[in-house]
Amino acid sequence: MDQLSEVFDLVEVRGLMSGGFAVRGPWVSRTALGDELKFIAMVGGRARLTTDGIDGPIELEPGDVAILNHRSWLELEGGTGDGPRREVAPEQGFPFTHLRGADTELDDIVMGGRIDLNPAGQALLLQALPPIGHVQASAAAGYNLRGSLHRLFDEVTANRLGSAFAIRQHTQLVLLEILRAYLDQSELPPGWLRLLTDVRLRPALSLMHGEPGKSWGLAELARAAAMSRTSFAERFRAVAGVPPLTYLNRWRMLLAQRALRDDDVRVGSLAFDLGYASESAFSTAFKREVGESPLRYRHRVREAL
């Protein structure tokens, strides 16, 4: 099973390009950040990135991307040559006319975007990422990311029919490559992203994701991972940050939120499908995890659509 794709669909991860600029000579760009998750891509040239919560600047090379997690401000500084630094403000929104005619060999080219998530996704991804994640294109895992960035840049600057649609699709792929490269390059904190990359625990994870309504026991999951119960439980908690059955319950709640939002399934049927003995047991577990009853949650999220 491809758990990363499954989680992407479940938490409705959406990458949206929000702006960019191309400049030659010394420059600086300062931005207040209103989005919880932001990404900054260095398509061409180099820059130094500073934000709150880090000890010193991060050097961005061509093809590098930074993921900013709940930061309040950002400063980028780059360029060479004499004279004062020019203040640069990113152009906001399509059609990104300031990027047309830019030369990836001569200009410093920066593109930025935001990562939109549903509430369940915010809880998962914001906890799994550090204040800033630096994804380096120079590493082997960054090869596909470099290609995706250049394809996105080509679409932004080509002014072809259907560009707005194509930019949305390419931004989604860029976001996927960012997270793929980040998973390969980084020492991840305990959480679901780290769990997805753990080869030894993957067989047990596949069972829980494949049949979330089954009453899985610790012994069965440990056998699937070819480990003793004690070793499996200790490793799972160290990697995921929670015990296996706590993770399974949270996964069920994510599935329940999607079903309540998108489908017309009865709460009792949903409770049975997810392995609960009764509708009341499911409702109690749902309220404990989500903070409101299933029916209240369904009404609220559908009103917001």
- From the helix content, strand content and strand pairing, which structural class follows? alpha+beta
The total number of structural domains is 2
- Number of alpha- plus pi-helical segments: 12
Count the E strands.
11
Percent of residues in beta strands: 15-25%
**Largest beta sheet: strand ordering:** 9-1-10-3-6-11
Query: Helical residue percent?
Result: 40-55%
Shape: elongated
Q: What's the CATH class of the largest domain, please?
A: Mainly Beta
Order of helices and strands: HEEEEEEEEEEHEHHHHHHHHHH
GO molecular function: DNA-binding transcription factor activity; sequence-specific DNA binding
Keywords: DNA-binding, Transcription, Transcription regulation
Protein name: AraC-like DNA-binding protein
Organism: Kribbella antiqua
What features would you describe in this structure?
- It is a single chain.
- With 305 residues, the protein is an alpha+beta fold.
- It folds into 2 domains: 3-185, Sandwich (Jelly Rolls), CATH 2.60.120.10; 198-304, Arc Repressor Mutant, subunit A (Orthogonal Bundle).
- Helices cover 46% and strands 20% of the residues.
- It has helices at residues 3-11, 119-128, 143-158, 163-185, 192-196, 202-210, 218-224, 229-240, 244-262, 267-273, 279-290, 294-304; strands at 14-23, 27-32, 37-44, 47-51, 58-60, 65-69, 73-78, 86-87, 91-92, 108-116, 132-135.
- Helix 6 (202-210) crosses helix 7 (218-224), helix 7 crosses helix 8 and helix 10 (267-273) crosses helix 11 (279-290).
- The mean pLDDT is 87.
- Keywords: DNA-binding, Transcription, Transcription regulation.
- Pfam families: Cupin_6, HTH_18.
